[in-house]
Amino acid sequence: MKQRAIFAGGCFWCMVQPFDEQPGIYSVVSGYTGGHVENPTYEQVTTGTTGHTEAVEIIFDPEVVSYKDLVELYWRQTDPTDAFGQFQDRGDNYRPVIYYLNEEQKEIAEQSRQALQESGRFDQPIVTQIEPAQTFYPAEMYHQDFYKKNPSNFARNHAKRAAFIKENWDK
């Protein structure tokens, strides 16, 4: 039976590839969630006035990859100490959020966040929010699979994130 996960971790272009390459993943869709505007456009979301975050919706097979595994992978793509965006992407629409779809996902996310805080990996508090999922709106088609369609532009956008991951997660 397929399940859903929704994560916001800055620019959605950079959040697709790590999940897309995992076994048990059916799809990873870039989109918007958490705001108050129906069917927002990229241009609207980037103004920071819609309340939406750029996010990815992951459809996965829990028999192959667990939600807990996805949360652990999520942490390794983000700076969980930065509440005001991620890397070069600044603003509320880039804030890190784990959106849960049920109480089990909420519990897994909260336990994982607590374990990360207690691990001492970061000197600063873990500020990633854990919020109930709202309607997920897929982004425009030109945003889907961006890393495959525009590898050089993706690499430029991903550079700061990749450096952070290497320094903080690849130890």
In short:
By secondary structure, the chain is an alpha+beta fold.
Which strands sit side by side, in order, in the main sheet? 7-6-1-3-2-8
Estimate the strand proportion: 15-25%
- Please provide the count of β strands: 8
Query: What is the ordering of alpha helices and beta strands?
Result: EHEHEHEEEHEEHH
Number of helices: 6
Percent helix, as a range, is 25-40%
Tally of separate domains = 1
Low-confidence stretches: none
CATH topology grouping = Peptide Methionine Sulfoxide Reductase, Chain A
User: Rg to the nearest angstrom?
Assistant: 15 Å
Structural class based on helices, strands and sheet pairing: alpha+beta
CATH class: Alpha Beta
Architecture (CATH level 2) name:
2-Layer Sandwich
CATH superfamily: Peptide methionine sulphoxide reductase MsrA
EC number: 1.8.4.11
Protein name: Peptide methionine sulfoxide reductase MsrA
Pfam families: PMSR (PF01625)
Active site: 11
